[in-house]
Predict the structure.
Amino acid sequence: MRHLETIKQSGHKLDAFYLRTLLMHKAAKSFDDLQTVSGVSAPTFQEACYLHGLLDSDRECDVVMSEVALQGMPHMLRQVFVSLLVNCTPADPATFSERHITTLGEYIQFKKNEHKETKQISAGTCNRVLLLLQEMLD
């Protein structure tokens, strides 16, 4: 239970994602069992996922972004995006960014167009998103 309390208190959506990924792929009796691979205890759920070979593609990063987009606020989505770029190192960061730039800019575009929905974000909105992401990295 101590891990669940840590996840709940820290509010990290990524921790919950990695825990859920492990639970879907490995039968375990405890959190320590989940984090142990071939006798080696991984310090985090993320590292345990890597040791189990569950995070070999960008698909997992895309799933995280989709989940957070459905339930998170725009700032949270940007935080998760930056965290994925820095910590999970997608195989092709440029393509990963292109796949998610629209989602990252939707709220900005929505506010800019006086709450009218649009299918595509403008170049100005794209630049604004990139500036916000840069500020988070600085």
The chain is about 70% helix and 5% strand.
